[in-house]
Fold this protein.
Amino acid sequence: ESSGINAEYGVEIWKLNAGDEQDKPLYGFVKRGQTQWEPLWSEDEKICARACNAEVQFFVDNDFSKVSDRIKRDKVGGVFVAPGADPYHVALYVPSIKGAHAFVQLYLYGSFEKTAAIAHRSFMKVDSCNIKFNRTGRYGIILASNDVDKSGSSYYGQTLLYFISTRGESNQIVLKKNGPVYSVEWSPRSDEFIVLYGFMPCRGTLFNVKCDPIHEFGENHYNEILFNPQGNMVGLCGFGNLRGKIKFYEMENKQLLSDFVASDTTYFEWAPSGDAFITGTLSPRLRQDNEFKLWNVSGKVLHHKRVETDETQLWQLKWVNSSSLLPPPTVPRPATSKEIAAAKPQAYRPPSSRHGQAAATRSLMPNVSDGVYKPGSDANRNQLSKQAQKNQRKRENRSKQNEEQQQKPAEPTMQELQPTIVDENQKKIKNLRKKLNQIEKLKEQVKQGKTLEKNQMDKIATENDLIAEIKRLEV
């Protein structure tokens, strides 16, 4: 690659506020492949990073005439710039080379030596890796995926989740149900995250930054997590090849606000106010019956627009975003069981049993009620025997109990949670003791007169905190 701009370059960077004065892009480069081609900026756009085959290049103040810093490795699979202001943090993914472990390392910007990594996590049999940071950039979730599940239990491969932080923590997130990971999202206003995982119907679990499960949303057919911009409400949704199930919860007490279906949804976006949203059926995902709807969080359609003909297609929807985050909206009251039941799709009824024709049908056929044939309701069987009445009451009670059980999400018992919590505490204690052993080795080096680096001295300073954390976990 050369520093000059060339028409053969596949990626060009332009300055938007330059207007007509800019006759050529600021910078251009070639990046083969469909992943990790995007340049990444810090939140204040002070630094820019781009991944090459064997290094990561950094530019400062959008000056692309010179490379201000580099990370050189045998192979680079991806780079991730954490949100937040100076000091910046950068994560590097290095794929497996010649049977060696793949790994992710978290660095403080400017200190890119291999031994200067703040956090390190290695794993085997990984084909791709992604990292999702929280809003402050202090915590991140690693999604390590392989395309083929050699156990044969999943067609979609396998995804493992790991937690890293700028404090040096690196732990695996334990999931209580086997199957794919569909979505992972951080809350915009707190250090909590939700994971949708497991074979359908999947499970939704809320975790804290200690990777402990703190709330279960039950099981249903979901594949997306959609927090409103203010973070006081969240939608668990099943779009794409699912039927469009949506459940909204308020995050303060984790109460269910609404439960309804938005069929054929291929696009969802919250309003900047956080109390309404739009859904759309868009091309090219679906080319028939393109439309969009405006909803409130209670599941009421406020506006509906359908394209006039199938020849006309709807390609994109977008809110005009507010320049600043609006205050949190008022959370509506939770929906009652009757309102939730009314929002569910009703059974099909033939045209002859709808509206005014139903009365005529019932008068001609006394054994038909609301279009449904009831053998015991005709003139020859007006009176049920006592035993038949008793059996009928049993069936009605049993049906009512089944409906009530289906409406309540299955909550895990303490007996189910306890083994996971104990095992996880033992893992954490083991990792903390390993760090204490490393600190003891560093203290021996100090006694021998060896000069340690700053990050090694910082590690020694955390000894008392590690001991206190071990005592807390052992209790």
Remarks:
- The longest strand covers residues 139-146.
- Confidence is low (pLDDT under 50) at residues 1-5, 354-382.
- The two ends are 59 Å apart (CA to CA).
